[in-house]
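USER:
Make up one protein:

ASSISTANT:
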Amino acid sequence: MNTKKVTKKNLLEAAIFAAIYLAVFFVIITFFGHNGHYIYVAHWSAGNFFLFVWVAAILFAVFGDRLSAIIVTAGCFIGITAGEIIGNMVVSHNAAAAQQALIDGNYQLHAQL
C-alpha cells in the first residue's frame, strides 16, 4: 500500500495555499462590494467561503500532491473570473434586448395578481 507521509515541507505548502485563499478572501471582502466596484461572483464566493474548495487544496498539499492543489486553486479562481465575465455578458445582452424592446414599443408590462 502506497501511503504518503505528512512532512514539514507539505505542511508549509498547505499553509501557503491557505494563505492564498485567505488573501483573496480579504481582498474581495475589503475592496470589492464597496465604492461601486461590486463583483457579484467573487463576493458571493468569498461570502460562502469558496464553497470550501480550499479544504481540498490544503489536504492535497498536506499529503504531498502539489499538482492537484495547484489545479484546484487555479480552477477556483479561473471559475470565479469566468463566471463574472459570462454573467456580465448575459446581463448586458438582456439589458440591451430590453432597451431595444422599449424603444420599438414591443415591451408590455403585465400586472401580477
